[in-house]
Amino acid sequence: MTDYGHPVEFGVFLPPGAAEFATTLRLAQAADGLGLELVSIQDHPYNAANLDTWTSLSVIGALTTNVRVFPNVANLPLRPPAMLARAAASLDVVTGGRVELGLGAGAFWDAIGAMGGPRRTPPESVEALEEAITVIRSLWTPGRGVRFEGRHYSVDGARPGPFPAHDIGIWVGAYKKRMLQLTGRKADGWLPSSPYAPTQQLKAMNAIIDEAAVEAGRSPKDIRRIYNIGTEFTADQLAELALHDGMSGFVLMVNTDDELRHFAEEVAPAVREMVQKERDSRPLWDESTRPKGPAPEAGAVYTASGRALGRQLIGVHDHLREELTKVRAIVGQVADGVLDVGAARSEINTMTMRQNNWTMGAYCESYCRLVTIHHTLEDTSLYPQLREGDPRLGPVLDRLTEEHQVIHEVLERLDAALVAAVAQPERITEVQKAVDQLADTLLSHLSYEEGELVEPMARIAYHH
Hints:
By secondary structure, the protein is of the alpha/beta class. It has helices at about 20-35, 55-60, 80-95, 110-115, 120-140, 175-185, 200-215, 235-245, 255-280, 305-335, 340-350, 350-355, 365-370, 380-390, 395-425, 430-460, and strands at about 10-15, 40, 70, 75, 100-105, 145-150, 155-160, 170, 190, 225-230, 250-255. It has 16 helices and 11 strands. The protein is globular, with a radius of gyration of 25 Å.
């Protein structure tokens, strides 16, 4: 089973034809009003019957409010990456952060050639796409002039900017092994279409992406999986794909209002409910799989400063436990009608557990501000020093880092539940459920961290 835990999103893949744009725009606005998250249009610039994709997306972006728009997928050989970076960032700014970038290596080379584009072999097209991703991200990153010299693309001192309003995802349309490996190494998302990537092939294709991600030092969770589908898919099938094949976005190739309404009002809510119910029933981690650190050795030397650091770790943990008790009390007050949901959210967001950057996975910044040994830990993190002092702790530290990310996600879900309860107070039960989940994960994690780290903290020397 593979479930990367991403929120499940839904969208539409709309007709690109010039004669159909009135329908395309109406469907995009309907998707926006019906609560879908994504609107996309294919990009075949050599097709004279189609409108230019970026022009169409710009109009759709201007006339919608919530949906994110993206090319599905942009034809790289006919769209130089430096200009593609500027176009995507510009539209992201104009729409307030509602653009993603679907990107493809190209196909239909005779048609591309007829438009003056390059004719590339499969290996060349993969190489060009990797270079393009480098160029695009460089131009989205503040700094000095960008210089990059590749076989297919180069920039010589180009100034970065404009900068996107949010972190635009680069979602790659990939099917063959080299492209899937590139997706795992470099992309933010995978964007296959069901006619070319049937459901029975997804598991093997995901495995290639995941292996490449791990080899590149990334987590497979770093890559979203967005699936272009036809109307034949049922809610049960999509829920199965989300829970067992890692697909967390479903984009319907739609042509009519009835198809769109059925998808938005019946299929999407049913899938969301099934996925959430299954996820809620699972433990967020299996405690039996936690690695154990080395056993204490006879004759080990423990320093006074190391023992003090261990005591302070426990002290910080006790503070977090006290905060958890406060969170329970605050939510109880909301449920009893004593406290406003907005006030509760504000109070929780000021707590150490919410301010703490759990995603750092490095006995984190907020902790370090509370711990002082000869004023040396202010700008350092403990985990790298523990790893250096005793490499046998590596698996434990890796697991603790993973659990930090899970706790971060649990806190985000709690905040989302509070936001939902502001508009719909009856959803306070979802907040209570999120708090119970926070208690389970946080208390378990703190106990594990203390059990595995207090002893080595007392015997490992720290850099001054």
